[in-house]
Design a protein that fits this description.
The complex is a heterodimer. Chain A is of the alpha/beta class. Chain A is 33% helix and 9% strand. Chain A has a domain of 257 residues: 3-Layer(aba) Sandwich (Aspartate Aminotransferase, domain 2). Chain A starts with 35 loop residues before the first helix and ends with a helix. The chains are: A alpha/beta, B alpha+beta. Chains A and B meet through helix 14 of A and loops of B.
Chain lengths: 522, 124
């Protein structure tokens, strides 16, 4: 078998090793699903459309001459195709989803019920504002609660997710510098920041300057001070950081950044650790996005869409983007143009409409169903659960920054796997065989072979105990030299290990019909 | 002249006033299978520690920094089509770019082979 430099096979195997092959290729309820183009045929259709009446073409000779190439399937075939695919998927609705810095928490069904109320679910962004007063009121209430929880001054609701929110906050910072006539070209980003932070800064044309992490995984105010200067526009810091640690010098860092005439962007991806405990505004933060799809339990990944409102400090508020909701006497209305925005200087707008209405409804439902005490307890439980896993594994797994309490996620490195022949990747693949989605791995980059586990508050003690017992069992197998179990994993998934190297080096991004398929279609 | 090394795992080999730069064998082994390389444009002026090139593996994307200041006079065109070369021959055929050295004194601040090996061992 051909192996790549990591000792992995370069051709994907099938999952049938060691078991008798079936005639269909299916394994009981696990169907071997063809691509929809392969299972469709031009002779089939889900709906009967009448032949178009005679009409005069106005396309000037640009009419399509051949078949459009879409697969023809009946309705039950289409339905079965997508249901079967969905059954191969792993979701928070099917099990523990410990991806670090992703906050894969339970999406309560009450959220879904509320989002489907016709007054929220069946409206259109171009409807007259007088007919959507309830929806505008909901946006205003949610905005108010987010400001209350963060202790900030104003909010941009429209960003569509975390990285979009980063762009929004950084555009506000850029506008603030430009209003002062300042030319600043550098953005400071600690090593422990989210990968999207340097990407956002670079996308906007800033030069990214990296701040190294200390031995304890946090950022020191001295390191920030020595990097600050008249050319620095902002710092982008994630707090709690991606090592799962709260930055102890964050207030001093904010003061130093402000003293140098720069602004403080905080990545709020890990806000779930501190809701109701710490208000980012009190820490001196100027802009922070809030992932409604993480902290406030709206769907995340695969289903989405994300939603990333950005809270702004008083200094950045005049530059907040359009649109936003205001209340005049008894009516709510959207401010949609710069001329309507009296007394402020919006930097522009980020979306065609007003943001993710369905996510606003779900997030507000989460807030109202939990209450302020419930949201605080959710954060406390998220931190407690992460520490429960940390303590449950610490005698086997290695903690890169010593035995200290973590926030909502616990970080291990691969020092404990040294000389076992098993890598972080192998370990993660073995977790798939045990029925778990792996944790975040090889991130953050400051740690070798990182394993970043975030259980969230959604998991019961029973669920955490089973997870810990599974990881301990796998760890003992690795230590006992059962390397094959890891190198062969996953053995029970629909596909064995894929050739990531070949996929990245020779990507094939479009499906092309095989000769056989083409002939069948003709 | 002998090869010099940086703490960011670049090697630099000097021939007259031209310096050839690549990433170390240790760096490619830590990165794993390299899947993408971006080299700098010829004519670009680089200051020491400027981000000069990008190397991406199945595990991570990293920047390659200019070990010393200078003007880019050549870039290895083979790497774009054959990133695997970095895994096969990091300190040979898989050189990234060549610089016309601006300040030879900067070379004195870099490590020799023995010092780099000790540095790698220490940080392992």
């Amino acid at each position: 078998m051909a192996m790549n430099s990591s000792g992995r096979p370069t051709t994907p195997g099938t999952a049938t090793t060691g078991t008798a092959a079936t005639f269909t290729g299916n394994r009981a309820l696990d169907h071997e699903e063809a691509l929809i183009f392969e299972s469709g045929a031009l002779s089939k259709t889900g709906v009967d459309l009448p032949e178009p009446k005679q009409h005069k073409s106005r396309l000037g000779g640009l009419e399509r001459s051949g078949d459009i190439g879409l697969p023809g399937l009946t309705e039950p075939e289409t339905l079965r195709h997508y249901v079967r695919l969905s059954r191969k998927n792993y979701a928070i609705d099917s099990g523990l989803y410990p991806l670090g810095s992703c906050t894969m928490k339970h999406n309560a069904r009450l959220n879904e019920k509320m989002a489907r109320l016709p007054g929220f679910g069946d409206i259109h962004p171009l409807q007259p504002q007088s007919t959507v007063q309830g929806a505008l009121q909901l946006m205003e209430i949610l905005a108010g609660y987010l400001l209350e929880l963060t202790g900030m001054h104003s909010i941009a609701m429209s960003p569509k997710a975390g990285a979009h929110g980063e762009l929004c906050g950084m555009l506000a910072i850029k506008a603030a510098h430009e209003a002062k006539g300042a030319q600043r070209s550098v953005v400071l980003v600690p090593e422990s920041a989210h990968g999207t932070n340097p990407a956002t800064a670079a996308f906007m044309g800033y030069t990214v300057k990296t701040i190294p992490a200390r031995d304890d995984g946090t950022v020191s105010v001295d390191a920030v001070k020595s990097a600050l200067g008249p050319d620095v526009a902002a710092i982008m810091l994630t707090n709690p950081n991606t090592c799962g640690l709260f930055e102890p010098e964050v207030v001093a860092i904010a003061a130093a950044v402000h003293a140098a005439g720069a602004y403080f962007y905080c990545d709020g991806a890990n806000f779930n650790a501190i809701v109701g405990k710490v208000r980012p505004g009190d820490l001196g933060i100027d802009a922070m996005h809030i992932n409604l799809h993480k902290t406030f339990s709206t769907p995340h990944g695969g289903g989405g869409p994300g939603s990333g409102p950005v809270v702004l400090s008083k200094a950045l508020s005049p530059f907040a983007p359009l649109p936003y909701v205001v209340k005049d006497k008894a009516a709510y209305r959207l401010i949609e143009t710069a001329t309507a925005a009296t007394g402020t200087h919006p930097f522009g707008r980020l979306t065609a409409f007003h943001g993710q209405m369905g996510m606003y409804v779900r997030a507000l439902t989460y807030m109202l169903s939990h209450g302020s005490d419930g949201m605080r307890q959710a954060s406390e439980d998220a931190v407690l659960n992460a520490n429960y896993i940390r303590v449950g594994l610490r005698d086997i797994f290695s903690q890169p920054f010593g035995d200290q309490a973590c926030m909502h996620e616990v970080l291990f490195d691969d020092a404990w796997l040294k000389d076992t022949g098993v890598t972080t990747l192998d370990f993660a693949k073995a977790m798939i065989d045990e029925g778990y989605h792996p944790m975040t791995m090889y991130f953050p980059l400051v740690v070798h072979g990182a394993m970043l586990i975030e259980p969230t508050e959604s998991e019961s003690k029973q669920s955490l105990d089973l997870f810990i017992a599974t990881l301990r069992t796998l760890a003992m197998a690795a230590k006992d030299g059962d390397v094959e179990r890891f190198k062969q994993a996953p053995q029970f998934a629909p596909r064995r290990r894929l050739d990531e190297t070949k996929a990245a080096r020779e990507p094939r991004l479009t499906w092309k019909a095989s000769t056989e398929h083409k002939e069948a279609a003709e | 002249m002998a090869i010099k090394f940086t703490r960011d795992h670049e090697w630099v080999s000097v021939d007259g006033d031209i310096a050839t730069v690549g990433i170390t064998s240790h760096a490619q082994s830590a990165l794993g299978d390299v899947v993408f390389v971006e080299v700098p444009e010829i004519g670009r002026m680089l200051k020491q520690k400027d981000a000069a090139a990008v190397v991406e593996s199945v595990k991570a994307a990293s920047e390659v920094y200019a070990p010393i200041s200078g003007e880019v006079v050549a870039a290895n065109a083979d790497l774009a089509g054959t990133p695997a070369l970095v895994n096969e021959d990091a300190e040979g055929k898989a050189w990234f770019f060549k610089l016309k050295i601006a300040n030879k004194a900067q070379l004195d601040g870099l490590m020799d082979k023995a010092a780099y090996d000790a540095f790698v061992k220490e940080s392992a």
